[in-house]
Amino acid sequence: MHMIITFKPGTSEDYKKRWYKKHGIVPDGTAEGVEKPSPKSDKQKIKKGKEGGK
Amino acid sequence: MSCTAYLPSGSVDTKCPMKEVRHIILTTKSFSLGSLTAAYSYATWKAAVDTALTMFPLRGITSYEVTTDDPNVLTTAKTQKYVTNRPTPSAMVYLDSNHCDYMEMVRELKGNHYGVIYYLEDGSILCKRDSKGNFKPFPARVTAINKGIPIPSDIANNYPIHIHHIDYDDFENAAIIHPAWDIDDLILCIPAGLTMWQTGNCASGDVPVQINDRCGDGVTGFVSADFDEVGSNYLVSPSITAVTDSGSGAYTLTLSKAAAPVDIAIGDYITFRVKKTVAGVVTYLSNRLTVVGDS
Predict the structure, then answer these.
(1) What number is the ipTM of this complex?
(2) What's the number of domains chain A is made of?
């Protein structure tokens, strides 16, 4: 699924981490300020979810 | 005090009568050009349209009516006549527009005060000159409202705006200037219009919206910096801190408040718009949208 996430310039890394956690998204961080989950990162997200459940 | 009646002074050979109005240029009510040089400068006008957003040339008009009342004429018992007032100028202008652009005007032009500049058929500009030499628009209340349903025999007149000026004195101090540039060059500088609307509740600060070309399809590619917060319920640091572009013009925006951002809460609201700029020039501009926190 096409999905590009951007944060307002100057947003703190702490806020970004909290935002990703709240939305259950694992970023692949391909560019400064742009987080673009890819099919690979979707798999990673599922794997991480399983790990988190242990 | 002398009651001497003065006559007008001087005269000049008249080249031709004043031409009809070809375009209307709306401005913010405080818009002003400080000199004749500035008034002739295309760069100055262009910057007002695509950078400062203090000027909005309407794309075109199909026709217009001057609706200024006739002056009152008092006839005395001895049948002498006196003009007893100076009616304030007004006009009904029919726009060359479309439903989507016009409805944006209906939302914004609600009888508040704006500036109006008249661009005439011969390329001259009719505006006001104040006592300090500034060139200004004529102050007016401008309202966009139509009959809703298309008029079958009068389609060209579906998009009227009402212009009600404030004072005849402004026209007494009018100036006509003849710039070298053409109004069509200015119209090309208008930012592309977008329509943005909310497509679901604002839950925990997240609100889904759809952004389309005005009267067109969804537009992708807007990032957080392209959103411009223009108002809120007195929130500290109202902000759109994150934007998720899901394609086809569908976005989810995270609305926050406070210096250390937290999601907006129930009852909080933020008003914002898309305002995409490239090197300071605004290329896209949407309607303003007010989103209220639901949970």
Answers:
(1) 0.77
(2) 1
Q: How many angstroms away from the CA of B101 is the closest CA of chain A?
A: 29
| Residue-wise pLDDT tens digits, B17-41 | 889 999 999 999 999 999 999 999 9
Distance CA B38, CA B33 (A): 6
Q: What is the pLDDT of residues B259-277, one digit of tens each?
A: 999 999 999 999 999 999 9
Q: How far is B218 from chain A (nearest CA, A)?
A: 14
In terms of CATH architecture, what is B192-292? Sandwich (2.60)
Domain chopping of chain B, boundaries: 21-187, 192-292
What distance in Å separates the CA atoms of residue B59 and residue B101, rounded to the nearest whole number? 10
Q: pLDDT by residue (tens digit) across B191-209? A: 999 999 999 999 999 999 9
Query: Backbone phi, then psi, for B153, in 5-degree steps?
Result: -100, 10
Whether A5 and B240 lie within 8 Å, measured CB to CB: no
Q: Which of B125, B163, B173 is nearest to B23 (CA)?
A: B125
Q: Which of A6, A12, A21 to mutate to test the interface with B (most CBs of B within 10 A)?
A: A6
